[in-house]
Amino acid sequence: MRPPDAHGVAQATRAARAEALAQFVALLDVAKENGDVPGEADNLALARFYMAVVQGMAVQARDGADVDTLGTLVDSYRPGLHIGPPATDPGCADYDARFLH
Questions:
Q1: From CA 3, how far away is CA 25, in angstroms rounded?
Q2: Residue 59 CB: number of other CB atoms within 10 A?
Q3: Where are the domains of the chain?
Q4: What SS3 string covers the chain?
Q5: What is the pTM of this model?
Q6: Which residue from 81, 86, 84 is spatially nearest to 37, judged by alpha carbons?
Q7: Which of 58, 61, 72, 90 has the fewest CB atoms inside 10 Å of its own CB, making it the most exposed?
Q8: Residue 22 CB coordination number (10 Å)
Q9: What distance in Å separates the CA atoms of residue 97 and residue 94, rounded to the nearest whole number?
């Protein structure tokens, strides 16, 4: 069996990150149109910020951080993001969907 081509894996990973960034920007564009993101916001910069947070949380999860720990990270950003109920609130309608599946 031939070992994976590291260059090919790097290209695929880079493409996946670029697609995720584009999806974040698209979501922020819709949020801006709906008035949920200020009109002067730089959606690309915000998307890069969110990607950095998600990637950092992925590293922490890989190192053993549990759902409650990661949920507190989300909750610490919540006031500035103007988003729904705390992620660690089991009463949140999509708590199970976001954290248990």
A1: 35
A2: 10
A3: 6-99
A4: CCCCCHHHHHHHHHHHHHHHHHHHHHHHHHHHHCCCCCCCCCHHHHHHHHHHHHHHHHHHHHCCCCHHHHHHHHHHHHHHHCCCCCCCCCCCCCHHHHHCC
A5: 0.65
A6: 81
A7: 90
A8: 12
A9: 5
Q: What is the pLDDT of residue 90?
A: 52
Locate 45 and state its tokens.
């910069």
pLDDT tens-digit readout, 78-92: 655 555 455 455 555
| Type of residue at 12 | A
Residue 86 near residue 71 (C-beta atoms within 8 A)? yes
* Pairwise CA distance, residues 9 & 12, whole Å: 5
Q: For residue 100, is pLDDT > 60? A: no
